[in-house]
Design goal:
The complex is a heterodimer.
Chain A lengths: L3 H5 L7 H15 L10 H23 L2 H29 L3 H10 L5 H14 L2 H14 L4 H24 L7 H17 L9
Chain B lengths: L13 H21 L9 H14 L5 E6 L4 E6 L3 H25 L2 H9 L7 H22 L5 H16 L7 H22 L1 H7 L4 H5 L7 H28 L7 H20 L10
Classes of the chains: A mainly alpha, B mainly alpha.
Chain lengths: 203, 285
Amino acid sequence: MRNPYEVLGVKEGATKEEIKQAYRELVKKYHPDKYADNPLRELAEEKMREINEAYDYLMRNEAGSYNSTSENYRYRSYNENNYDDFNRVRTFIEMNNIRAAEEELSRIRVRNAEWYYLRGIIYMKKGWYSEGYEDLQRAVLMDPTNIEYKQTLNRFMEANRNYRSYSYKQRGGADPDLCSICTCLFCSDQCCECMGGDLINCC
Amino acid sequence: MFGYVLPFKPELKIKEYNIFKSYYCGVCRAIGDKSIISRFALTYDMTFLSLLLSSIYEDEQIFRKRFCFYKMRNVVLAEPNLYIKYAADMNIILYNRKLIDNYLDTKNPIYILLSNMLKSKQYADIVNEKIQRIDNQLNELRKLERLKCNSIDEVGHCFANITAEIFSIYDDKYNKILRQFGYNIGKWIYTIDAFDDIEKDIKNNNYNPCIYKFNYKGNDPKKFKMSIKENIEFTLFMCLNEISKAFELLELKRNRGIIENIVYIGLERKTMNIIEGGCNCEKSL
């Protein structure tokens, strides 16, 4: 194993706070989400593993005893593991394994916007639209800056609108209104006059 | 079931209207062959089921003129084929279960009496397979209702499973589509029925999932309905959208026009009527 201080890019003897800070920065940089469709994904994952190991090692040793380890571990799991957990849920959803996704999600303790978002998606897939709609709305409310949540919600609304507009068309749409009748008459009149005839003889 | 699944009459061709009516009479006749009193329990939902299944699976549809004692005149009816008989059996069973349900709710013995009258001794083979599964889901549904479940989706899920079971009769290439179709139509029926009954249920102090889901706090029922409109509307249209998607994957041998009318116009109309609180006094077909 490489020198963990080097991996995290901190000085030897850095405080807990400094290590956490550095770790957070690195997670942001190498997060697997950023490399989702990237050919370098595996390398990024490798890097992430190294960073996690170094962080674990330092936190454990620095804390010295096992008692505080659990606290540190929880911190780490909040910052990083959840991403993994959420990604696992996402993978299950993509594979259409809804039951596994649901189980995986119920194991996650944090109830943040992403959690509600994923539950909303799962509900939608299950056909539980009322709950799904609520969860998606809640996710958008909790994190209004997230574009993904908003887009997903809009996609479902759009689908509903499509059905309705098709229904409208099936009914033959609206009858032609006065304006289009007038335009039609006017054009016919013009055409007739071009050919030397007249449709409406007053104009 | 409750008779929400209907074509929108003004957009039907007259010949389509006649076919729909003849299926209605066909189901009625098939019910009469099993249990005469059950004829009064005939619903449009089951007419739709018979029409859909016949249009998918049956090679021929035969119409006959028969004398109808209820209308006191000759009617054209679709000769009961396997699917019409199936829908008729389902109609009897579901009505029978509904009466038993009423008895369990009210403990009024008249319902037990009625439920004993409204049943048949013998059902078709495909029906027998389904009964057990339907009853399991109904028990589940009752349990949730007794626990005053606060998720309309969870309760509706049981009901939707029943309709999914009813719609998917064979284990063939259409099984999955019809299951999806049935599930969403069941969800739609349950949800729209719950929404439609809010005022009545509040008055009679009956269970209604909407009351528990959206935390009804004793204010004006009309206002309460308005406040939950958005969610219900979304839910209902999601169901309809899924129904239409499943429908497009089915290959029908005939009667596409009528079924299209029901899927795209009839259900949409009904939804809008009930959501907007429009009049429910639409004339029977």
